[in-house]
Specification:
With 395 residues, this protein is mainly beta. The chain has helices spanning 80-88, 121-124, 133-138, 140-147, 285-288; strands at 2-3, 20-21, 34-35, 43-49, 53-55, 57-65, 91-98, 103-108, 152-153, 155-160, 167-171, 177-178, 185-186, 200-204, 218-223, 231-239, 261-267, 275-280, 294-298, 322-326, 332-338, 344-350, 381-386. The strands form six sheets. It has a nine-stranded antiparallel beta sheet.
């Protein structure tokens, strides 16, 4: 993860184009990084997922406690990257274990942590000594394997309700998820997760990822007693699926069926009116045969999980989960934000025809026709959506 100052004030670094690598957040295939709810006098936390099959969800907890004086200071010239360094250059990285009873544990990725087989983590990683934190961070994925984290269905985007602190994360799909009762296989071809580098090649279903060959994906949600805590409670918020799928656990209909949730944003409006926006990057034929990638919206405050429900959103909640916008053929809808007054919503359209126009050219001119086709190639774009009356966008 890399931090820049978009306002250009990087005095401590000495160049306006500098970027600082935030090493302590871990070394893996980050899809992004999202700050948790900030509370005065408490550590600052950042959540991130490893976008790969049967990989993990992580949390970084700062050593420094949050000082509101470090928030934005309009009209003042100050070193924002130095503030980032205060909270991101020292702390503890954790990986998540999702238990079958709906509880969860954050497992510390520190050299002296005890692995699931009872060894110190630094020994499991073949590090020099118990002080080699850099060795743990460089080998984040192996460290998480040894600690017994829960392999997930490709964690991608996260978002946090800034009022409640509840965290949402998309689990987009997993073609390497096998049925209950099957044995896990490992990337080294062996059978021992404690072998260095032996991450999961395939993994059987678990409570948080209960569907084999998961093409629909799901959104998971958890809540923590405090930002620095090491336990949490979790639930599946919604399952993606086609309307007629036998494992359509959220009861989706033709009006809101979706698959492969990817982008995610919690649009805080206060008074329980916050909107969760879900964007898709779908490759599941049962859904793509009906609709393109899309943006869906739901007010989480209007839905709740009942006894026996597999997810918060079920068949009784279909009027609450709404298809808001649909993209062009084959595109991915990704990236979302709104103006503070909530009258303009921005989304990105990642068009599949955007690249390459000419596979042999180093410079791609979007205004030049595609060779042999005569047509101008499709381009990615940022789209702004507004109501005709200029009012607040709501669902």
């Amino acid at each position: 993860m890399v931090e820049i100052d978009p306002y250009g004030n990087t005095a401590s670094v000495g160049t306006e184009t500098a970027a600082l690598k935030r090493t302590h957040i871990g070394r893996f295939r980050h899809e992004g990084c999202w700050p948790g709810k900030v509370i005065e006098g408490e550590p600052v936390v950042f959540y991130s997922g490893h976008d790969s099959r049967n990989e993990y969800i992580y949390k970084f907890v700062s050593k420094a406690k949050w000082d509101p004086q470090d928030a934005n200071r309009p009209g003042q010239d100050y070193d924002r990257l130095a503030i980032g360094s205060k909270y991101l250059d020292e702390g503890t990285l954790y990986v998540a274990r999702f238990n079958a009873d709906g509880s969860g544990d954050w497992l510390p990725l520190t050299p002296d942590a005890t692995t699931q087989n009872g060894r110190p983590l630094w020994q499991a990683l073949n590090l020099a000594n118990e002080r080699d934190l850099a060795g743990v961070i460089i080998n984040t994925c192996d460290a998480a394997d040894f600690m017994g984290a829960t392999p997930m269905d490709r964690p991608e985007w996260g978002t946090v309700d800034p009022s409640s602190g509840e965290v949402y994360m998309t689990l987009t799909n997993n073609s390497k998820r096998t049925a209950e009762g099957t044995a896990a296989t490992y990337t080294d071809g062996g059978s021992d997760i404690e072998a260095l580098g032996a991450g999961y090649a395939t993994a059987p279903v678990n409570a948080a990822n209960p569907r084999p060959d998961n093409e629909g994906g799901q959104v998971i949600r958890w809540r923590e007693p405090s930002p620095a805590g090491t336990n949490f409670e979790w639930e599946v918020f919604v399952f993606g699926a086609a309307e007629n799928d036998p494992d359509n656990f959220s009861g989706l209909t033709e009006l809101n069926q979706f698959a492969s949730p990817d982008g995610l944003w919690y649009d805080d409006r206060g008074d329980g009116r916050g909107i969760l926006w879900i964007e898709t990057d779908n490759g599941y034929d049962n859904v793509t045969d009906y609709t393109n990638d899309q943006v869906l919206a739901v007010v989480p405050g209007n839905v709740s999980r009942g006894p026996g429900d597999k997810a918060v959103i079920d068949a009784a909640d279909q009027a609450q989960l709404k298809r808001f916008a649909v993209g062009p053929n084959g595109c991915e809808v990704t990236g979302i934000f709104a103006t503070p007054d909530k009258t303009s919503l921005f989304i990105n359209i990642q068009h599949p025809g955007n690249w390459p126009a000419d596979p042999d050219a180093n410079v791609q001119d979007a205004t030049v026709a595609i060779p042999k086709s005569g047509s101008v190639r499709a381009r990615a774009a940022t789209v702004v959506i507004r109501k005709r009356d200029g009012g607040e966008i709501a669902v």
